[in-house]
């Protein structure tokens, strides 16, 4: 499957699991969805199905890998391709101390030659696209010149698509949450990368709150990746297909999204999934809507109960419709 990354939803740890991705796919059929980061160790030595299983409805869907060993990454990329993913993305942006200790994430920006080696090995193992998601820089290594050098070297390893979180990462002194908020966004650096490397694809990530901002960024880059806003206010994606992919089909209503989720929820419950593991992702469906707080509160108070079933979803929906 060819991938049009004009609009995508960012990989977010503990958020963009398979249940969330299925839910988001009911809202937008064309936005590219990304998994949470999965480490090479989790795939090679853990439960592959647990980490990589996904529903066919999720396409186009990309898997994000965390690691720095070219051989391991190549093996994992092939496993992911065999699972049916449309793209493999290498995480060079996570600032967590935990992943730094494993030489994963943003710390790799200091080693562009190693990143290029990893990309080359992965590309040699699969036929699907291999991409990189990275920051503007790390700590004091934050000049545009170093960023440009990173892109040039990694492109030499065969990478043609760069997803750029438009902040640097501060690897000591800031938590991962602070690293999403404290370092300033410098969109102009991402725009400049596209200007300097017009043959490469650049996807801008960081701080995008609405589709008007997506429109504005698309004047300078090839695509925009939406992060936390797509989780807390998922219906932001409802107009994406028409606005950015030329789809003539009417956007779904929120009520239609609930209806389209029902067969999935019933099937997952029958296979042993607890309702809370799905319901937590749909809390924001009625964000800023009349009676939306009732929906959120009812699900929060009831979906975690041991025997919670589809009737909880029905009851929450009925609160929205009550006169």
TrEMBL record:
The site (Interacts with tRNA) lies at 91, 177, 180, 296
Keyword field: Flavoprotein, FMN, NADP, Nucleotide-binding, Oxidoreductase, RNA-binding, tRNA processing, tRNA-binding
Q: Where is the active site?
A: 94
The domain of life for this entry's organism is Bacteria
The UniProt annotation places FMN binding at 11-13, 64, 133, 165, 205-207, 227-228
Question: Which Pfam family is one of this chain's hits?
Answer: Dus
SUPFAM superfamilies noted in UniProt: FMN-linked oxidoreductases
Q: Where is the DUS-like FMN-binding domain?
A: 9-313
Tell me, what does this protein do in biology?
Answer: Catalyzes the synthesis of 5,6-dihydrouridine (D), a modified base found in the D-loop of most tRNAs, via the reduction of the C5-C6 double bond in target uridines. Specifically modifies U20 and U20a in tRNAs.
| Similarity-based family | Belongs to the dus family.
Q: What's the protein called, per UniProt?
A: tRNA-dihydrouridine(20/20a) synthase
Q: Which organism is it from?
A: Aliikangiella marina
């Amino acid at each position: 499957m060819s991938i049009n990354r004009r609009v995508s939803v960012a990989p977010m740890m503990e958020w963009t699991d398979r249940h969330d991705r299925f839910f988001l796919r009911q809202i937008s059929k064309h936005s590219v969805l990304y998994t949470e980061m999965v480490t090479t160790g989790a795939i090679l030595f853990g439960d592959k199905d647990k980490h990589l299983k996904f529903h066919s409805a999720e396409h186009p869907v990309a898997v994000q890998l965390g690691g720095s060993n070219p051989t391991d990454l190549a093996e994992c990329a092939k496993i992911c391709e065999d699972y049916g993913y449309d793209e493999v993305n290498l995480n060079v942006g996570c600032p967590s101390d935990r992943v730094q200790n494993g030489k994963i994430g943003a710390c790799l920006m200091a080693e562009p030659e190693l990143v290029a080696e990893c990309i080359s090995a992965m590309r040699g193992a699969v036929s699907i696209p291999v991409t990189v998601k990275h920051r503007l820089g790390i700590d004091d290594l934050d000049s545009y010149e170093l960023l440009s050098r990173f892109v040039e070297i990694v492109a030499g390893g065969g990478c043609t698509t760069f997803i750029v979180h438009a902040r640097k990462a501060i690897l000591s002194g800031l938590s991962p949450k602070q690293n999403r908020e404290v370092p300033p966004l410098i969109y102009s650096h991402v725009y400049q990368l596209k200007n300097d490397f017009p043959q490469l694809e650049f996807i801008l990530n960081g701080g995008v709150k609405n589709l008007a901002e997506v429109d504005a960024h698309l004047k300078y880059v090839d695509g925009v990746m939406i992060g936390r806003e797509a989780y807390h206010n998922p219906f932001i994606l409802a107009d994406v297909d028409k606005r950015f992919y030329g789809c003539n089909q009417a956007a779904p209503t929120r009520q239609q999204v609930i209806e389209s989720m029902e067969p999935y929820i019933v099937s997952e419950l029958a296979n042993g999934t607890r309702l809370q593991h799905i319901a937590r992702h749909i809390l924001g469906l009625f964000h800023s809507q009349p009676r939306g707080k009732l929906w959120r509160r009812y699900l929060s108070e009831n979906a975690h109960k041991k025997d919670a079933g589809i009737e909880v979803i029905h009851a929450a929906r009925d609160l929205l419709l009550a006169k």
